[in-house]
Amino acid sequence: MRTLNALAEWPVDNVAAAVVTPDGVVGSYGDTSRAYELASVTKLLVAQAVLVAVEEGAVELSTPAGLPGATVAHLLAHASGMAFDKREAAAGVAEQRIYSSAGFETLADLVAAESEIAFEDYLREAVCEPLGMASTGLFGPAGHGARSTVADLTAFAADQLAPQLISPELAGESSSVQFPGLDGFVPGYGRHRPNDWGLGFEIRGHKTPHWTAPDHSPRTYGHFGQAGTFLWVDPDRRAAAVVLTDRPFGAWAKPLWSDFNQAVLQELG
Questions:
Q1: Number of domains making up the chain
Q2: 17-49 pLDDT tens trace
Q3: Quick one: pLDDT at residue 162?
Q4: In which domain, by residue range, is 87 found?
């Protein structure tokens, strides 16, 4: 894809990217085998491991987790009321969409306790090994501590387009709005009313400004990370993209990300 060549002009030292459709990788750029810090894109992998645990019966979406009255589903959807970086209440359950890395650490601890497998091992066995993601691992907190490559994440994106790890029914639920109508902040992009989220996946909806493209369908979902990384899946266009950089997210990224994603969509047609 010609659009990918625009990445050469980005103000970063290193960048790699790929665009995926049901036909496979339709374009890539840079060293797709280079490992990058994922920051909050980690949450996509962690959420997928939790969903595998749900299908295996280790936990249920309705299993109590974290704060009183909250469940696994609340934590995945940032609807538990748990604070960003502390395992304490910042709001009531399902009152606001409070983005919480602590909530994902809580989920990892719960799955580890119920499965009797260290979570980093569970993630590897449940997600990475089945998808051939040999260069991916969790090396820190479950909210932001993974490293991976574009090559590995294209396999993850391909599984989103044609689910194999979990049932199509659970996959569809995970990318659908959970606890609709909740307002909240997308880090770096301000408050949205509503701030739609699925089970671990941010859902674009009608948010503006946003890191995806204006022409993305409202059902587009994914995540971006403060490490300068993002992954999106547009189920209506049957396409996905991964971009990993080594420059922390900031003002530089906002116009470039949105313009790049718009150009990808236009080239896909």
A1: 1
A2: 999 999 999 999 999 999 999 999 999 999 999
A3: 97
A4: 2-268
